[in-house]
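User: Fold this one for me? It's Cation-transporting P-type ATPase C-terminal domain-containing protein.
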Amino acid sequence: MFHSTDAAVVDAAQQALDDASVFGDVEANNLVPFRSGRPYSAALLGRRIALKGSPEFVTEAGRDPNAVSAKHVQSMAGRGLRVVAVAQRELSEHDARRAGEDSQFLEQCCSEGLEAVGLLGLSDTLRPEATQLVRELRGDGRQVRVLTGDHPTTAAAVATELGLDVAREDVVTGPDWENFSRAERRDAVRGSSVFARVTPEQKVEIVQALETDGRVCAMVGDGANDAAAIRVSSVGIGVSSTDSDPARGAADIVLLDGRVGGLTDALDEGSQLWRRVRSAVGVLLGGNAGEVAFALIGSALSGESPLNARQLLLVNLMTDALPAAALAVSTPSENGSEKSEQMDAHALWQTIAVRGGATAIGALAAWLLARASGRRRRASTVALVALVGTQLGQTLLESRSPLVVATVAGSAAVLATLVSTPVVSQFLGCTPLGPIAWGQAVGCASAATLLAALAPRALERIAATEENANGQSTIRKIPTRTSTAYTSRTGGVSARDSVEISDVEIKEAETGESDTLVSVAAGSDTSPNSRATRDES
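Assistant: Here's what I get for Cation-transporting P-type ATPase C-terminal domain-containing protein.
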C-alpha cells in the first residue's frame, strides 16, 4: 500500500508520461522506513537503492556535494513547496544480498555514495478557512506560531499564506534551537513565530519552554512523532487518522470530524461560560462584600448597625436569589462583549473588588445623606434602597437579557412595594419614603453603578500605562486550561506542517494521510488532490 506521498508522486508521473509500462508492480527486497531522527526512506530493488529524503541529507550522503542545487531548493521552498530529494545507489551483488537480509546494513549503505536524481516539490493546499482561523485567534489575543519539520523557506512561505508576516531570516531552525542557551530559548519562544526542521524531541522542548514562560499550550497531532509533545502540553489534541494511534493514545481530546471552525467555537463557548461564572460570582461575592463593608463602616461611625437583621435578609432576597440565577443562565451572546475573553483570576477578583466597593460606597453615601437630614429609621430605609438599587444596577451592567431585566425590574418593584406599604415597612424596621428620600437613594445608587461601569476601564488604562513605563509587553495569560487545536486539509500528500497557538498553541503533526496539520483539528481527506512536481537537480 502506497504512502500518500508516494501515491501523489506516482499519480503525477503517470499523468506526465505516456508509457504506462514503466509503472509495473515492483517488489522491494528490503525497506528502510522514515522515522524520527531518520530524514529519509529507502527501498532496495535488486541491486539498486531508491531513496527519498531531505535535500540536506542527500547532499551530505551524496558522492557529489554540489549535485543538489541549494539555490534550486530555496527557489522551490520559496513557492511554498515541500522539497524532497530523490537519490539512488548501485550496490555490488554481495552487498545487495546482504542489504536484502540486514536492514541495518541497508541503512549504512544509504548514508554514503548516493547519486542525486532530482527534486520533488509537494504542494500542500491549505484549507480555505485556515487563514481566517489564524486571523481570528490572533485577533482574540492568542499568539500563533508555526512548527514544522520542513525547510525554513517553505515554513516561511506557509506562514505568510496563513497571514503571518515572517521573513526567512526570522525562522528558527532545529539546529539553531539545539545550540541556544536556556535564555536564548526563552527569547526564541517569546519572539519567533516559525520553527522549522524541528525534531519530535525539539517539539517537546519548545512546548516546555513556552509553558515555563507562563503560557498554556494546546498541542495537536496525528502521528507517532507528536505523541510526546501532546503528552507534555497542558491540553493534548489528537486528530483521528489511519496513522494516529500513538497521538490519540497520548491526547486528552480526540477530534473526529476535522472541522477547523471547532477551535473558535470551543474558545467562544469557554469564554461565554467564563463570563457567566464571573458575573454570577461577582453578584454573590462582590455584593455581599459590599454589604459587609457598609455594615462595618456604618457601625464604626454610629456605634450601631445601619441595617437590622430583617433588612439584611431582605437585601439578600432582592439581590442574591433571582438576579444571580438569571445571570447564570442568561444567553451568552447577550452577556458581555462579542470578543473571546480569556479566563483570568485577576479579572475575577477585580470584578469582585469593584462591585463590592461600588456597593459599599453607594449605600454609605445614601445613609450619610439621609442621616444628616432625617431620623435613624429614615436613614436606614434610604440606605436599604440604595444598597439594593446599586447591586441591581450593576447586575444590568453584566447582562441586559430579557430574563435579567425582568428579574431586576421585579426585585425593584417588590422592594418599592414593601417599603411603601406602612404595615410591612414598619415590620421591616423601615418607613415609607418621600420624594427627597427616594431621590437620595436612587441618585446614590445610580452614581455608584456608573462608578462600577467606569472603574474597570480606568484600571486597565492604569495597568497599561505602568507596563509601558516598565517597558513590558502585554501578555494575556490563562490558568490551567487550554483551547483545542485543529488541522487544515490538503489533498493527498503527507505533510509535516504545523501551527502552534500559545495562550492557545497549536502545533504540527506528521500526517500519514492526506491532511496537512496547518493549524488545528482535522481528520483525513483520502482524495488525492495534491500536486507533485519534479525538478532535475
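One thing worth pointing out: The radius of gyration is 33 Å.
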